[in-house]
């Protein structure tokens, strides 16, 4: 795994008051959870489940549109330039 995949990402939130923070800390401690883990579980419980079928359909449609654009723009010609080289040149 790369470092980006293993490093945690920080999220700061503002609470309305200290009493709320104390309640969260108390409940997390009662469940033998760190504050971070407790908050993560609470947030994940509110997130909708990913719709993999919908994401696959959107990706397929995007790929189809890109291929149609490529056929319209280039026809049967093959693009001979390395795209990574083009990106590097554009960034200079």
Gyration radius (Cα, Å) is 24 Å
Pairing-aware structural class of the strands and helices?
A: mainly alpha
Major beta sheet summary: none
Q: Residue-averaged pLDDT, rounded?
A: 85
CATH class of the largest domain: Mainly Alpha
User: Low-confidence parts, pLDDT < 50 over ≥5 residues?
Assistant: none
Order of helices and strands: HHHHH
From the 3D structure, determine the CATH topology of the largest domain: Arc Repressor Mutant
Could you tell me the number of beta strands? 0
The number of domains is 2
CATH superfamily grouping of the largest domain? Met repressor-like
Helix content: 55-70%
Note the overall shape. elongated
Distance between the termini: 30 Å
* Total helical segments: 5
Strand content: under 5%
- Please name the CATH architecture of the largest domain: Orthogonal Bundle
Keywords summarizing the entry:
92 residues; Arc Repressor Mutant; 66% helix; mainly alpha; single chain
């Amino acid at each position: 795994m790369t470092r980006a995949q293993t490093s945690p990402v920080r999220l700061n939130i503002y609470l309305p008051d200290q009493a709320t923070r104390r309640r969260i800390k108390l409940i997390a401690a009662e469940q033998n959870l760190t504050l971070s883990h407790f908050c993560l579980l609470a947030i994940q419980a509110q997130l909708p489940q990913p719709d993999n079928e919908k994401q696959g359909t959107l990706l397929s449609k995007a790929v189809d549109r890109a291929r149609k654009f490529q056929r319209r723009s280039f026809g049967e010609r093959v693009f001979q330039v390395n795209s990574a080289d083009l990106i590097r040149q554009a960034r200079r």
